[in-house]
Specification:
The protein contains nine helices and eight strands. Helix content is 40%, strand content 16%. It is α/β, with parallel strands linked by helices. Strands 7-6-5-4-3-2-1-8 form an eight-stranded parallel sheet. The protein starts with a helix and ends in a 14-residue tail after the last helix.
Length: 236
């Protein structure tokens, strides 16, 4: 067994244990392997037992998706997205997790190829109120969700968050509970949502306890990354 395969097995065991502790079916939690900064060959190695991969950087992700097209992988864009880079993302990816303003959603909708299935999207919510974090404020999430849900060529699937790093599980669970509560509010308002994208290598257990349906894990699968000083906040 390769190192990546062994790490994937270990992460899946963590997910299953966390789900069972929460009284949930482990099959209801999807592992998204975050492959940003890792070469296509590392993804190919992981793809022996993993289908969904997450990327933060547009050109890097587009290049990997093209290089590995024959593998039939599912590609998720999970990083901040500028309006001048929406077109390649709209057509190379299956999911976009970080919608935090209507302009980005409108561009993705307009630029998605009509021959492709609708692009799955999540709205990113800033559950910790940090100025350095992307995401819409919880109080503004409902209006944005309804606007995004009305756009053609997109399918609003749910919500995403990246809380502040903490070793206090109670703090993390409280942040994740905000996202869960918002999802329930939107469901009550008539939106059909099935996704809570929350939890990373260091906090997937409290995220699963609060209802995560997608956990974004990079370091625990691929290893530590060497990040330049200007690299955006980690999303895995």
């Amino acid at each position: 067994m390769t190192t990546i395969a062994a790490r994937l097995d270990a992460v899946r065991a963590r997910i299953a244990a966390a789900a069972r502790r929460a009284g949930r079916d482990p099959a209801d939690v999807t592992l998204l392997a975050v492959s940003k900064t890792w070469p296509a060959e590392a993804v190919r190695e992981a793809a022996a037992g993993q289908r969904a991969f997450g990327e933060n950087y547009v050109q890097e992700g587009v290049d990997k998706a093209e290089a590995l097209r024959a593998l039939g992988l599912e590609w998720h864009f999970i990083g901040p997205l500028q309006s001048n880079k929406t077109r390649p993302v709209a057509n190379a990816f299956d999911w976009v997790h970080g919608i935090d303003r209507l302009k980005i959603a409108e561009r993705l909708s307009a630029q998605r190829d009509v021959h492709l299935p609708p692009l799955n999207v999540c709205i990113q919510v800033n559950v910790s109120g940090e100025d350095s974090k992307s995401g819409v404020a919880p109080a503004e999430a409902v209006a944005l969700a309804h606007a995004v849900a009305a756009l053609p060529r997109l399918r609003l699937r749910g919500l995403m968050c990246i809380p502040e790093p903490s070793t206090d599980e109670a703090v993390l669970r409280a942040r994740f509970a905000v996202l869960h509560g918002l999802r329930d509010e939107l469901r009550s308002a008539g939106l059909v949502l099935d996704t809570l994208s929350m939890g990373m290598s260091h906090d997937l257990e409290p995220a699963i306890a609060e209802g995560a349906s997608i956990v974004r894990v990079g370091t625990a699968i691929f290893g530590e990354r060497v990040r330049p000083a200007s690299t955006p906040t980690p999303t895995a």
